[in-house]
Amino acid sequence: MNNTFIVNIIHRPEMVPEYAEKVTGQGKAEDIGRKALLTESLDIFKFQQETAHKHGLKTTIQMTYASLFNDEAVEIAKAHHEQYGDEISLSLLGLPCKEFREKYQTKDFCIWMFSMEDKKNIVDDVFGKFYDRFGFYPESTGSYYMDAELTNYIKEKYPMVKCAIATCWEEGPKAYHTCNNSWYTLFDGGPWNPWIPSKQNTHAPAANEAEDSGIVAIPHLSRDLLACYDGNGSNFGTHPQNVLRGMIYDSQTWEMPYLFNLVDQYRHLAKYNNGYSYNMMFVGPGWLNKMGRWEAPYELLAKSYEEGMAYYGQLKKEGQLVDMTMAEFADFYRENKTYTEPECALWKDILYGSNKQLFWYSDPYMRACVNMDQGGAIVDLRPYVAKLKWEVGIGTKHVQDASYPFLIQEKYRAGYFTHYAGEGTVRSAKISYNGEEVDLCLCRTHASFSQEGNTRVLTLDPVDIEFVDLTVKLQTKIYFEEGSSKIRMERNILEMSNPDAEVTINEYMVGCYGTTEYPEDMCGITLAVTDGTNTDSIAYEYKCREKAMKGGKVASATIPAIETKVSLSTDATDGEAYVREGYAFSPMYTIGYQKKISDKEVFSTWLNLEKAD
């Protein structure tokens, strides 16, 4: 794709923007039809549009339900479509207005949280009103999140829709806690860059045409894949609002280099994705009101937006950026990407000055995060292979929680660094010698990326493991084979201070499942070891039991609650496969394989994901 960097700039004339009624109506009774509110919202939308156009950029105008009742907003959209080539699209955000509340008698505004019956009625209302105003149906839509059932209904009823904003990356418990436990948008576990969602689950990419929901999904904002993962994503994104909310700017000069560094790091992702990189800005008017936001005066809000658009405009003039509407991008994506092609991101810290480095991998079978600060341990793992049906909204088991469940998640279920008792979820290895043991999680390193055919390879810098009377130089390589639902970890003993010594390597995964910090019921999980002929198993009952098999080839855990089987396998025959049951204070399980290895030996294990019937 010849280093194609694409940006989607998306504006919405949200006539009753989130938060803004409380600002413009300070000291007055609530009135979402307040003239001052509607006038200011429209003025902000005009400013955003003018700023983008001034810098030679076209936008996607996502009309809200409320804006469809405003003649001026409709006329602006028509005029800018004709003059600048902007796409007239339709947002499922911005539902609140007098007409909506009178009809549905609710203050709910998140489309995915409604009952399925209401979702259908609202979609038909909003799409019908759009058609009345413009004479055609939109080719793109979106929300903070769109569940699979909602997407499937829209595609069936309005087949011209080809693109949708479908999730916020890592908008889960971390964001919830930093919003004073009051922001019930819980959808961790999805891709961070565009993907084709499956009919079964929005977060899980389609593996083939049969699973294809018919749309190309894009994320709500391009987030910092390290700062957002470690902290609240709402502070770290390529939307100036995020950067200002995170106070990431010089308070004296109002300079904000972090925003441009973040855009540049997204440009850099072309190196890992066959020359393709992507960025998006999805901006409602609420944050640009005249009274200021997040301790920032209006002048700074406007300056940040102006400079953000200027940077994109400069890149376009230099031939380093292509601005597309959402519908144009959907066509580009379909023409240039295959179902099984993964999304890769080798991401470094650009905010805190550390040397931390994460590698993110996503395909139709899994999403994984590798942490080089923990020796190349896998610290986040989502089994997309299960294509878990996870209905969301009123009348379902998950009214608010739309997250895709994890098997490993170091932020919610601890990683290597844990309390004095118990274990945290992680995929790593331990090296032991003469009674001493070192976990590779303690061995900080860095990685480089390469591609060998259809396999993406992460090569870690060698680490030195020091025992009392032995030093071992070990290198890890991690292989992600496209379309395989497997991760191969290769350990290479490059050098030993005593070439005749043998060390024991223990490849392990500590796992669980869930979407939040709180433990799920582990009963129903089956742990097993097998050599291909004989099998020994444990039905999980929190009893601290272990099973081991000399010559065993596979250690596995089957988790019916999320229809997933995860296993650790090897080609070696001279070791021991084992499984370990946890206990109530440490509700985890461990699967692993251990064997002796010597100087210059290369040893591989595979982490395998399958759908469990």
What does this structure look like?
Helix 5 (116-134) packs across helix 6. The strands form 5 sheets. Strands 16, 17, 18, 19, 20, 22, 23, 25, 26 and 29 form a 10-stranded antiparallel β-sheet that branches. This protein has a 6-stranded antiparallel β-sheet with strand order 15-14-21-28-27-24, with no helix packed on it. Strands 1, 2, 3, 7 and 8 form a 5-stranded parallel β-sheet that branches. It is built from 12 helices and 29 strands. A hairpin with an 8-residue loop joins strand 9 and strand 10. By secondary structure, it is an alpha+beta fold.
Structural class, from secondary structure content? alpha+beta
Oligomer: single chain
| Biggest sheet features | 10 strands, antiparallel
Unreliable runs, pLDDT <50, ≥5 residues? Answer: none
Overall outline: globular
Quickly list its features.
10-stranded antiparallel sheet, 613 residues, alpha+beta, 6-stranded antiparallel sheet, 22% helix
Give a concise summary.
The chain has 613 residues and is of the alpha+beta class. Strand 10 (357-363) and strand 11 (366-371) form a beta hairpin.
SSE inventory with pairings:
Blueprint: E1 4-11, H1 20-24, H2 35-54, E2 60-63, H3 71-84, E3 87-90, H4 98-104, H5 116-134, E4 140-142, H6 148-157, E5 163-167, H7 173-178, E6 216-219, H8 227-230, H9 240-245, H10 257-268, E7 276-283, H11 298-317, E8 322-324, H12 326-336, E9 343-348, E10 357-363, E11 366-371, E12 377-382, E13 408-409, E14 426-433, E15 436-439, E16 447-452, E17 455-460, E18 463-466, E19 471-481, E20 486-496, E21 502-511, E22 526-530, E23 535-539, E24 546-550, E25 554-559, E26 564-570, E27 576-583, E28 586-598, E29 602-611
Parallel strand pairs: 1-2, 1-7, 1-8, 2-3, 4-5, 5-6
Antiparallel strand pairs: 9-10, 10-11, 11-12, 12-13, 14-15, 14-21, 16-17, 17-19, 18-19, 19-20, 20-29, 21-28, 22-23, 22-25, 24-27, 25-26, 26-29, 27-28
